[in-house]
Amino acid sequence: MGSCCDSKPKKICPFSIFLFVASMAFVTHQLSQNKKGKKSSSSKDVQLPSCEVIFVVGAPGTGKGTQCAILVEKTKGAWTHLSAGDLLREERQRVTAAQTATDDDDDLELAHTIQNCINAGKLVPSSITVRLLEKGMKQAYQKTGSTKFLIDGFPRGQDNIDAWDNQMGAHKVTSCLNYECPEQLLVDRLLERGKSSGRSDDNMETIRKRFQTHVEACKPVLARYSKDGILHTINSDQSVDEVYKQTEKIVLGK
Questions:
Q1: To 5 degrees, how large is the angle CA 122–CA 125–CA 127?
Q2: Among 48-62, 65-79, 107-121, which stretch is predicted with the lowest mean pLDDT?
Q3: What is the pLDDT of residue 111?
Q4: In a domain, 32, yes or no
Q5: pLDDT beyond 60 at 203
Q6: Is 115 part of any domain?
Q7: Sheet of 148-152, strand order
Q8: Looking at the 3D structure of the chain, how many domains does it have?
Q9: Using 50, 70 and 90 to split pLDDT, how confident is the model at 32?
Q10: Among the listed ranges 21-30, 44-53, 121-130, which one has the minimum average pLDDT value?
Q11: DSSP assignment string, the chain
Q12: Of 8, 51, 95, 226, which is least packed with CB atoms within 10 Å of its CB?
C-alpha cells in the first residue's frame, strides 16, 4: 500500500498558465484604456461652439433662480440654467469630499484654487469665476448638446464683466434680465426662507447689507448692458406666474 509520500505532484498545464497570463494582461489593458477614456472625456478637452448667453441679475430674494428654473422646464431643456453661486459652492465641496480613484490633480485644480482663496480670506478672482462658468457650459454641452445658457447671479460688477469679455468673448450675450423688487419685500421673503433654509445669512442685518452691496456693485452692469440695448428690467413684486409672463416675453418673444 502506498503512502501519501509516494504520491506524485500534479503537473501544471502550460496552457492554463498561458490563459491566466493572457487574462491578466487583458484586464490591465482594459483598466488602462478606461482611465485614459475618462481623462479624454474631461470638460477641459471639449470645444464649445459659439453659445447664446443671457445674464440674470437681481438682489437676493428677487426670484431670479425660480424664473430660470421655470424657463428651463417650459422650453423642455432648450435653455440650461447655471447659477454662479451654486457652481462655486459645489466646486468648493469637492475639495473636502472624499476623493474617488477617478479624481486627479488636474480635475481638482479649480476647486483647490477657490478653496485656497477662501482660506486666505480673499475674494475668488473674477477670472476663476468665469473659468468655473466655462466648465459648467462645457459639461452641459458635452452631456446634452446645449448651446443656450441662463447664467444666474453673474455678472456682479465691472471686474466680472471684464473677465467675461476677456475669456468668453466668443459667446454672444443676447440679454441681461434684471429682476427688481422693493427692499422690504425682499427682506420679508428672505426672513421667511430663513425659517427653513438653515442659512446663516438669512437674517435682517446680513440681508440689508447684501441688498446694498448688490445695488452698488450692479451699477456698472446695468449701465453696460443698457448701453448695449439688451438690458430688460423686470418687476418681481408680483406672483411667480406674472413675473414669468414678463420673462417669457423677453426671452421667447411671446
A1: 165
A2: 107-121
A3: 84
A4: no
A5: yes
A6: no
A7: 80-83, 148-152, 52-58, 172-180, 231-235
A8: 1
A9: very low
A10: 21-30
A11: ---GGGPPPPPPPHHHHHHHHHHHHHHHHHHHHHHHHHHHTSGGG------EEEEEEE-TTS-HHHHHHHHHHHTTTSSEEEEHHHHHHHHHHHHHSPPPTT--TTTTHHHHHHHHHHHTT-PPPHHHHHHHHHHHHHHHHHHH---EEEEETB--SHHHHHHHHHHHTTSEEEEEEEEE--HHHHHHHHHHHHHHH--TT-SHHHHHHHHHHHHHHHHHHHHHHHHTT-EEEEE-SS-HHHHHHHHHHHHH--
A12: 8
38 versus 54: which is more confidently predicted?
54
Under the banding of pLDDT at 50, 70 and 90, the label for residue 53 is very high
List pLDDT tens digits, range 154-169. 999 999 999 999 999 9
* Placement of cell 480635475 in the chain: 107
C-alpha span between 206 and 100 (Å, rounded): 37
CATH code (residue 244): 3.40.50.300
C-alpha torsion 186→191→195→198, nearest 10 = 80
Say if 64 falls within a structural domain: yes
Q: Which residue has the cell 491578466?
A: 24
Q: And the C-alpha cell for 200?
A: 446663516
Helix 126-144 crosses helix 84-96 at what angle (to 10 degrees)?
90
Q: Could you tell me if residue 111 is inside a domain?
A: no
pLDDT band for 68, please (50, 70, 90 cuts).
very high
